[in-house]
Amino acid sequence: MNIPAIDVLRGVAALGVAWFHSRVDLWVGFREINSNPSGYSALDRWLSLLSLPVSQLGSLVMLFFVLSGFCIHLPLAGKGRSPDLASYAIRRGFRIYPAYFAVLVFCYFSAMILSLSLGTASATGSERTKYVLSALMLQNWVYDGGQIAMNPSLWSIPVEVELYFVYPILVWIHLRFGMAASFAFTLACTGIGWALHFSGAAIALGSFFKYAIIWNCGAWLAEHYVRHTLPKFTRWHLALLVLSLMLTPVLGLKGVDVFYLHYGWGVASFLGLWWLITDGARFIPPNDWWVRWLAALGTISYSLYLIHFPMFKIGGIFWIEIFQSKPSSFLVPSLATLMVIPFAWVFYRLFEYPSHEIGRTIAKRIQKLPNKETAVP
Question: In degrees to the nearest 10, what's the CA dihedral of 294, 77, 231, 262?
Answer without folding.
Answer: -50
